[in-house]
Write a structure and sequence with these properties.
Chain lengths: ~450, ~450, ~450, ~450
């Protein structure tokens, strides 16, 4: 008997494989799915069933891909008309050796969401664990804003799911959710990825709100962003995404080839560290530090536009490819071999973005210098604390709102620590803003220094 | 925040590493301890504390080895006078980033046993999990027979530990024990290695026995074997075992060198499958199929006697070395390069053991043939079901009791499926028994065929 | 600049990848070709060309598979009408960074064979190395018996290739052949896999035969076997084999499922060691110890017949699958989970083969016992030395000649050390021979003991 | 029979392991020597002898470390009084299975240098290969300037070694040298790492100089740098370096801990890319991009001074540790966890270095701006081509010559492509130079653009 969590970093997506006897089941597999096949082989089992807890909106599902490799059947909730797989409904059970899986219909995050209760038939009938999908996380509950126009209905459904279906499974029940800390699917997830219904019942903030109406109101007041790529994911995951096969292997491009590709429309996606980008970049590049790619690629990349990647190492290149194909971005033309050095050595121009530290920034504000202080954090972060005079544009929305910024004014980009700000800086530079500086350290440094221009008033 | 289980197969020993911030703690590390260093490095943390839940008796502890590599401090219970490390007592707490560890004194398995309660200070005070050592397993509780003469006291202590210390931590508490299924430290462990106090409270057989006196009596009636090597482990783990450094790398020996070594006293330890051994073995060998080495090596090997190993592959050789050094057997002279083929090709004699299947065996019994049917299972297995006329000698005790067997009588060795029986067969052959057959399939096959000579009466 | 050899053990097939700048070329890739993609990625190059030195007859070529993954062009000799790729002719050159490859037409092994001369344009024009395909090996030269009816022509062509095309490249030229020791494509290859034309010129036996007519006669007198599967490989490699994609993953089968599959026509292919098979096997199995699978699978397996595999470990199972798909055997139904133990424990019958050592065998021969001593080595081995009274049937031909053996006579199977003999024993058992023993040690042991019944007379 | 090259990137040090039968020999092992033990185990052989071709001066030898793990004997030339191992002299031979190694005394690079001729006794007496140490490389020959005062004698000895000892081994002989391209032990090595005496005889520039006196003069005219750490290596490798055991594992340090360590004397060694450093660095840091660490660490680091490392990834950290211990720098206090982001977020100051591209730099020179253009390339590079007005200080000598630079003048650091220049920039910043810019692209870009200020006159 075994159970393993497979975490896709960045998306903080958790998928699960468990097995007993000769069989294994997989819950919410990702698109680069050889990992499940390898685990199953090493455990001496065969994957026979795959479950989708709901039509995931933040990544391309791997069920079809995995089903092609293994012949496994795919199951999902009945409340949506999927273009693949079979529907299951409340109370359906599936045996996997001595393990038994029972379907709970748990709408709220989406109408067709299901949870899967795990029991060990060797040891009584008490639930051992529950796969909660996006209904219940560790430290948080699912968002209910995704079905446009049905937000109240969904919030009510989630309340019922949590208090009337999940918590009654008992304090002893282990929780296996579809996301961990860092996901866009919940703001307050714990960094701890192991918990039980009992622990959540005692401490998860929303599970303390036992009044149904108060719960619903709180959910409806929450603010969540929706990356642009969710639309594509919803189409893909309803109808079934294109099959991928082996991961694409980007080809090395010389500086001259990189120039030719970008001139004919490809986007240079620079995945290096913010510091490296700031010092020297290929003009026109979009900077997304690799760690941020899963969170912001879905806002800033366009389907169908060719990509040329730039990373420091082969390992990072491989990871970038995985991140991209998990979000459905498959048109990867190649990568800039030799990185910036090859570009610089070819005699081509490169751009740069100045660094500005918290002390200097605060001084410029104090002195009333005229410049745009562009804070690209989430609105919830901005409301808590900001610098006086800062202008807020959420990073994911910057391409749409860039027209409202004065391109003749100096700009300082600003965020939590300077990572997201460099993405904004790259967008500004690519749109012709000339005087752009990046606030490395940003709010973290301002708070560490307790800067005079901090504004904690209600915003 | 992370928590990982490291399982040593065979011993079914579970050790744990968890960390947050810049630090990590390790619970009950094994001797080949580079694995913890590697995990810590990959997580960006440094191991600062090591906890021994008790003076382990079934493997050489790795605390000293790991402490040498990392500088970490070692902690253990106060009720024993250890030759290394620092004592902790009830209520002591240790912080590891946001994780907090609290010491519970939980005697019963041994007098100085401690458990470690894990809390996440980001999320309330309710216990997240508890490291229970050998006090509480999944599906079973610790054995209380190890302190000679104090069996009742230990059983009483365990009752108090379980019902008054551990269960009160709450149903939501995850359990992190020191052993999983297959360990000699408990008969009834579940094959499932994830559970909570709530699930155990509901289903673990001994936790249903709420009457203290009944609990104590049941514990005192249990039968457990004690491998001979426990004595050595107890010495080692009280005083601190010798430091090992890198794992020994056995050298390849030609058939001639193997012959020379065994002639001058080395033991040929044959770790191949039972079938391979049966067909052809180097005279004088001890067969212990690799999977059984952790369970039976401690009964059958002698400290100080040189070993020559025989495996089919390099991978198996590496694993054999790990198994051996975990039990303190370090005098490995080399391995027989080219395996049996090299030996056979050198023109040297080889022995063999006949195979006998369940049908044939049953027929011989029915016909009243005269031979010794030697059943080497545990006495508890034997009592449940056996073949009529079988003679029971527990495999671990066979070297001591072999004098009582008639070496002029044909012998059929017998166990659960034929694996342990081959070990017995090899011992008999090495002691000069000529007519030895091994019952491949053994009791499993007899039951599958519902053999006429099965005896399920109370024994 | 890099150059790497990829060796497929068993077939002893050598393929090569080399690169410089942004490109790499591959010579004679195998079917499971992800390995080349991974090497290219780690070296920061893209595979742009693939060369087939000839229509290989002993494995399924990987060019098409690799071309699909990389987009690389495929090149081969012009003297055959291939169903894929482009023809190249004498003197064509291809640049790969500073490396330059020149085509030499080098018929002899086959009419369309080419060799590829490697130069480093940074350092003069002297050849650095030459990819010789099956024209020239280290210690041997290619076989010339494969084109039926044109044996003399091919032998003459090879002479011209060796003495007039390859040796003139100069003593300093490194040799990169398509096979190493152990291949069926040459009897006398050295175990050393690095050499130069100069070293071969001085020591390779056939290169000492400078008289053309004598060379041709010697080649025509050579005896080589042709495994049955060569026919299939020739078809595949002329037209292009079916594309495979990811390697098949066999599913675990219980003893009951194994029984059902074999009853309905599947072949149980037992890949364990000869000793393990001898002691206990599933009735009807074909034994081919894993190491021998590439050499004898092609004689003994049938295309289209379902296979159930039996190995000791997952690693061995993976390797078995690779061996099989390299020879085009893709219909793998699953594997026997739990191995023989699962089968034995189910109460099912199992067969066995006795072991007989060299001393005992010699004694039986001396005493004139009546039995068939079946020597299954190659005829060339048999002619050198054999036991008196031995009957020779080459292992690869045993299924065809089994009708000529007396199945009421006891049989002892015999070979070089007992490995191939177990394959023969399994075939005899599956054909209903009852009294079969296997001579573990076989000729190696007889010679080590200098047995009285050895016969070294000219045969 | 096997032979493998183990390359230590950066130092471009090549070591070799080969074996046959049950034994293996190692030539010139490195200090982190587990790699040889692992290869030997996987090949089923035991390392019995280790050869040092000479007292290496550019890395800490691994012979003692490897000998401790394996028990192997160490051999070296007789012309130096080593504190460990045994001397060998001309004509000594050692058998390793069918391989035979013969000692040639081949002074020139150092007086005690030996070469090792490899023969395969299965195939005649012609040499298969030769381990040449630092006598003969691919594309170059050894430097002869290391024995102060005996330069002529050494050059003469090298001539005799090459022309009278090595080349006579025959064109067919493979070359296995101790260094590949990129080593400080030769300027002109080929990027190709496989060659023969025949190919070198035809193309290696110095082997074309057949006149002994001309050869000697040319060698004496060569210019080579000697990194400061050579002295330490010579001591270590004569007497035997301290034993290391497992590699040190640096501990994570918070920004505050980093500050504390550097304030109390530790050096912050920043191993990130030049671009990342330029944009933002911890004040006082020494920048050595990881790739350059083996080449320049030995000039710029001090034995005994504590190091705090800064890398982008754990993989880079591991490699940095290996590079450092190979040069004997073992006092690694830890690493800056979270990199620059952690430092910036703590509100601490960070430095930066401007980037200047080739066009802008050329324009400043054309306009006659006053600044120091500091070219830190090797003098041989500088002599070939430079920018007008550039001042040359070799990077390795900068700390010693920094006093001669005007710290009130703006400085632009310059090299081949901007990598080495950033090291210089970091040194200037740490010494209080305020206005420092780094010429990313440097000479490569200037040449690509054919800048007007290029000066190719004889310097």
């Amino acid at each position: 008997m075994f159970l393993k969590k497979i975490k896709s970093e960045g998306l903080a997506h958790l998928s699960w494989i468990f097995g007993d006897g000769n069989e294994a089941f997989v819950v919410d597999p990702r698109r680069d799915c050889q990992v499940y096949v390898d685990i199953a082989a090493s455990q001496g089992v065969h994957i026979t069933r795959i479950f989708e807890t709901h039509r995931n909106e933040d990544y391309v599902i791997g069920s079809l891909e995995l089903s092609r490799l293994t012949g496994a059947r795919i199951h999902h909730g009945a409340a949506l008309d999927f273009g693949y797989g079979d529907s299951v409904t409340e109370g359906d059970t599936f045996e996997c050796g001595a393990l038994r899986l029972e379907i709970l219909e748990t709408p709220g995050h989406t109408p067709e969401s299901i949870s899967l209760v795990l029991r060990d038939s060797n040891q009584g009938d008490t639930p051992v664990g529950v796969f909660t999908g996006d209904a219940l996380f560790i430290g948080d509950v699912g968002r209910t804003d995704l079905v446009s126009g049905r937000e109240r209905e969904m919030a009510e459904a989630l309340y019922d799911t949590l208090f009337n279906k999940l918590l009654p499974l008992g304090d002893q029940t282990l929780i296996y959710p579809a996301h961990g800390a860092g996901s866009v699917c919940g703001e307050n997830m714990a960094s701890r990825e192991f918990s039980t219904l009992g622990h959540e019942r005692a401490h998860s903030p929303m599970l303390q709100v036992q009044d149904r109406e108060r719960f619903v109101r709180k959910k409806m007041e929450e603010h969540h962003y929706q990356p642009r790529y969710f639309k594509k994911m919803e189409e893909y995951n309803l109808e079934g995404p294109p099959l991928l096969g082996p991961l694409p292997v980007p080809r090395p491009l010389s500086a001259g080839e990189v120039a030719k590709r970008t001139e004919s429309g490809a986007l240079l996606l620079d995945l290096r560290s913010p510091e490296a980008f700031a010092s020297s970049f290929i003009p026109g590049s979009l900077s997304i530090p690799l760690d941020l790619l899963p969170a912001y690629g879905g806002y800033l990349l366009e389907y169908g536009r060719e990509l040329v990647l730039l990373t420091d190492t082969q390992t990072e290149l491989d990871l970038a490819v995985r991140h991209l194909i998990r979000m459905g971005f498959e048109s990867i033309a190649g990568y800039a071999k030799g990185g910036l050095t090859a570009w610089q050595s070819s005699g081509r121009d490169y751009g740069s973005v100045d660094a500005i530290d918290a002390g200097a920034l605060n001084a410029r504000l104090e002195q009333g210098e005229e410049f745009t202080l562009l804070d690209v954090r989430k609105i919830t972060e901005f409301r808590k604390v900001r610098l006086k005079g800062a202008r807020h544009v959420f990073l994911g929305h910057l391409p749409d709102e860039i027209g409202q910024l004065d391109r003749n004014m100096p700009v300082v980009t600003f965020c939590g620590s300077g990572q997201r700000a460099i993405v904004a800086a790259s967008i500004l530079k690519a749109h012709g803003f000339e005087d752009v500086a990046n606030a490395f350290g940003s709010m973290a440094a301002c708070e560490a220094l307790d800067c005079s221009m901090l504004d904690r008033s209600e915003a």
